[in-house]
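Chapter summary example.
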Amino acid sequence: MPSYEQLRELLDPATTALLTVECQQGVVGTESALPELAAEARKSGALANVARLVSAAHQSGVQVLHAVAERRPDGRGASHNARLFRAAERLPVQQLSGTAAVRIAPPIEVADEDFVVRRLHGLSPIAGTDVDPLLRNIGCRTLLVTGVSANVAIPNAVFDAVNLGYTAVVPADAIAGVPADYTPAMIRHTLALVATVTTTQDVLGAWKRPGRAG
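The structure predicted for these 214 residues follows.
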């Protein structure tokens, strides 16, 4: 874990952005297509911690981006080259563009200044989307990665961020995957090798203004 001063410098609001990954109603909401993942995101406190981080980012002037996975009703442009995609086509809840399933799930609040970046294909919240050019245009150097799932999209986002030259930071208690014991193992043996691993509370502390109470 980095020291307070190291984390404070790393998470300078002027050069940091917060990315929420697939924190949408059809994934982590009460009507999720993946109820086991949704339950774990809530039970573990990860979804609540994402909401806390988003709120603090809004207050601290940190740019927030919400990465949403969706598909057209006709499926045009969707990926079919992996078992995961074929399984998703059979789920009872579809992440269709314009439906409630692709809206950001409570308790996360979306502000007017947030970017909502939608993708119709692939596994990555970054590659093949507008995330990278948006980050470069705002002068981002550090990307805080949160959301789901620790199984696929989160490591994909972290690897992509590192390959693109960003410093990735992962609050371990603001991501979730299934089964529950997989997430800490993946963080310890994979993400910790390429990202700065921290906690929600430490991020909030780094963004707290000097002398600010509470």
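To summarize the output: The chain has a mean pLDDT of 94.
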